[in-house]
Amino acid sequence: MNAKLRKVREDLDKRFDAYRAKRARAKIRATIIGITGSSGKSTVTKLLGHILASHGSVHTQVLANTMNSLVRMLYKRIKNPAELDYVIFEAGASGPGTLKPMADMLKPHVAVVTMVRLEHFSAFKTLENVAREKRTLVDALQPGGLAILNADDPHVIEMASAARHRVVTFGMSEQADYRVTDVHAAYPDRLTMAVHWRGGVLELKTPFPAEHFWLPTAAAICAALELGVPPEKVAASVETFQPLANRCKVLVTEGGPQFIVDAAKSPWHSIDLAFDMMAKATAKPKRIVLGQISDYAGSTRKYHYAYKTAREIADQVIYVGDNAHRSGAGQEDRDSGRFQELRTPREVSEHIKKTAVAGELILLKSSARLHLERIALAWTHDVKCWVPVCGKREGCDTCGLFEVPFEEHRDHVRQRRHARRWQRLRHLLGG
Fold first, then answer.
1. Are 156 and 171 within 8 A, CB to CB?
2. Eight-state DSSP code of residue 244
3. How many other CB atoms sit within 10 Å of the CB of residue 402?
4. What are the backbone angles phi and psi of residue 238, rounded to the nearest 5°?
5. Looking at residue 431, what is its pLDDT?
């Protein structure tokens, strides 16, 4: 089959899949919740799903947030739509025009917008373009729908001005319907906060190590309470939530370091948040490992600024990857060991293994490309996949092949599938 025919066939398959997805969406009677924003949407999605699971039957689609993911969710992954009370979908935008088709197909009853930041800078160019794209989820709400908006973000709250739907807001602003106060986190002390709303005050204990998680927590709580979950169930669910892998997930090793793994995303606006978390942490000593900054691969100025900030917080700063040379660290810092410039995650892992101090706190901060989570995993597993850039979008925890050399992944997966087929066949034959 030549390339042109293959392209035609792929286009026809996509159209047919979209047709089936629209038919499947029409059969869903559950409350549909769409969640978007430049940051925090994955945590909101997962946390809200966890809370609503105490109140009804939920299907949660997190991390896989593209049009193809939505299509597959609607006609493949939702098996028994009549049995569902809630469907939650995280909707991402990689450029202008990418979110609207998802919003139009999803037709949510509830739309949550966390924040507008200049992520995917090369595609969007301006904050206004990002806001315009995120707004399409609010515009796609069904009649009588509910928009849950961040009162502290001017680009988000602006979405309420012409909304044809009910609007509820959350934030630290005095005008917020769900007002957040008393935010505190200083690792190992986890985030605590209070939410003031028409039902009173909800005191919350969370598993998060940083104060900036107040925002996704507040968004999820606002949605849950508006959907009728009793406050006591909300508070209990928040306390038992397990944070997403690689999004400030804490790993405490026996007799070794404590890791905060923030290696799923690294937009510029998130760098100071991660550094602020480390500055407030009381655990010592501290190290910061910085890899790829999203959308600023070649910006020496950004890497310079990040190093100047990090060295004031941490006892050692390690830059890793193709941009490690952009730190601007002086020779004195290099000679003293205050700064380390390394090329691969494996080199960082070996360096930390040799120099680790029991109880020290290490931040692993990077975009997903470098898979810095392997540095933490190497303390509890025999990591053998150390290829610098594997090309896989999912984290190593999801991939699950980090104990297999990269060049053996394909054969390993093939053998695993073969074994599963034989297992199913034996089960069918009663063996």
1. no
2. P
3. 21
4. -60, -40
5. 55
Give the burial class of 116: count Cβ atoms within 10 A of its Cβ; 0-12 exposed, 13-18 middle, 19 or more buried.
buried
pLDDT reported for residue 121: 60
Q: Given this model, what pLDDT does residue 201 score? A: 97
- Enumerate the β-bridge partners of residue 361: 258, 286
Share of the chain above pLDDT 70, in %: 95
Least confident of 11-15, 77-81, 321-325: 11-15
- Does residue 8 carry a pLDDT above 70? no
Q: What is the rounded CA–CA span in Å between residue 88 and residue 375?
A: 32
Alpha helix stretches (DSSP H) within 30-125: 41-52, 67-72, 100-106, 121-124
Q: Could you state, in order of their start, the residue ranges of all structural domains in the chain?
A: 12-240, 249-411
- Chain segment 152-207, per-residue pLDDT in tens: 999 999 999 866 889 999 999 999 999 999 999 999 999 999 999 999 999 999 99
> Which CATH number is associated with domain 249-411?
3.90.190.20
Contact 237, 52 (CB under 8 A): no
Check: CATH 3.40.50.2300 for 12-240? no
What is the rounded end-to-end Cα distance, in angstroms, of the chain? 42
Residue type, 377: L
Tell me the one-letter amino acid at 108. Answer: P
Instruction: Report the b/e string of 320-342 with b at 16+ CB within 10 A.
Output: bbebbebbbbeeebeeeeebbeb
Q: pLDDT higher for 388 or 412?
A: 388
Query: CA 109 to CA 133: how far, in whole Å?
Result: 18
In 10 A of CB 162, how many CB atoms? 9
Judge whether 12-240 and 249-411 match in fold.
Answer: no
